[in-house]
Design a protein that fits this description.
With 319 residues, the chain is α+β, with helices and mostly antiparallel strands. Helices cover 35% and strands 22% of the residues. It has ten helices and 15 strands. Strands 5-10-6-7-8-9 form a six-stranded antiparallel sheet. Strands 13-12-11-14-15 form a five-stranded antiparallel sheet. Strands 1-4 form a two-stranded parallel sheet. A hairpin with a 7-residue loop joins strand 8 (137-142) and strand 9. Helix 6 (99-110) crosses helix 7 (154-161). The termini are far apart.
């Protein structure tokens, strides 16, 4: 990424964030023209509750930020699965805003087959559960690495989910996709253009015996690797997503990704969108990301100059 910026004559530097040095990071940000941000929404008990206001403050001061926290909230949390449920990339999706709602409605919905429940924001399978009926109540499996399925009373599982609803949290439900063992296709996008793919094999939510047989390597592929999926994304799905969540092309992150599983009749089923922490992404995509970032930096600088000129003109008129 640094090499791609250097090719364009852009000076780039690394900036490491932690909550303990948030004030120092803000001072560094305000001295820059823009920032590409990769920070997990949930990491070892921490979240972005201090980082996101800092990024908003920097953006308000004229620093270009990608992905902007408000854009992430509109298009890249699990709630987008419900917002876009009418799109052809979607499986059935349901939103639970309260733990009581989950307790009341989930048993009836499990009668149709296993479900996957996902907390509002998370990474690495944290807060993602496969749930199925069991004589003991429910059989559940956490998507976190290495977790095995186990049975427990339904009430115990509801209590396990209770923390996901604190602070305005929620959970999203989707049907479990039986073809999960065939892998997941991750489409990397720069704005509204597909710039690469990855084929990987998530082990979470699979029987451990099956998971042990799957490849461990993530394979990056060019944007032509999955041509039907690329065409669908660029010509139809991304424009539909923008219209539903209210994100303009300029607001789209310069790098984000959408994860797909195979459903019935080889249909692609969206399982999540990532914009908080999309690194690493294909090396072949980095020049396009750098060019898009530079265009945004120049546009932000031009807007700042225009605003300054307009303010000066108003001041002169008032005098």
């Amino acid at each position: 990424m640094f090499a791609a910026f250097a090719e364009l004559g852009v000076a780039a530097e690394a900036l490491v964030y932690s909550d303990e040095r948030a004030g120092e990071v803000l001072d560094q940000l305000l001295a820059l023209d823009g920032v590409l941000v990769w920070v997990n929404p949930v990491e070892q008990g921490l979240d972005r509750s201090r980082l996101d206001p800092l990024l908003r403050e920097a953006a308000g001061a004229g620093v270009w930020v990608s992905a902007h926290p408000d854009v992430i909230l509109r298009m890249a949390t699990k709630e987008v699965l419900v917002d876009t449920a009418a799109m052809t990339w979607s499986a059935d999706a349901r939103l639970y805003r309260a733990v009581g709602e989950l307790a009341e409605q989930l048993p009836r919905r499990l009668a149709a087959g296993p479900l996957v429940l996902k907390q509002h924001r998370g990474m690495g399978g944290e807060g993602v559960w496969k749930v199925d009926l069991d004589p003991a109540g429910v059989r559940v499996q956490h998507a976190a690495k290495g977790a095995a399925p186990f049975a427990e009373p339904f009430e115990d599982f509801v209590d396990r989910c209770r923390p996901y609803f604190t602070g305005g949290g929620l959970m999203v439900e989707q049907p479990f996709q039986p073809r999960l063992a065939e892998g997941m296709i991750r489409a990397y996008l720069c704005r509204d253009e597909v710039v690469g793919f990855a084929h990987q094999y998530p082990r979470g939510l699979l029987d451990p015996e099956v998971a042990a047989t799957l490849p461990t390597k993530k394979t990056f592929k060019p944007p032509t690797a999955y041509e039907p999926l690329r065409r669908q994304l660029e010509s139809r799905w991304v424009p539909e997503l923008q219209g539903i969540v209210g994100v303009s092309r300029d607001e789209l992150p310069v790098i984000w990704d959408a994860d797909f599983l195979l459903g019935r009749d080889d249909a692609y089923v969206l399982c999540e969108i990532n914009a908080s922490s999309t690194f690493a992404f294909p090396e072949l995509a980095m020049p396009a990301v750098a060019r898009a970032a530079l265009q945004s930096l120049l546009a932000a600088r031009a807007d700042a100059r225009s605003s300054a000129s307009a303010s000066s003109a108003r001041s002169q008129r008032s005098e």
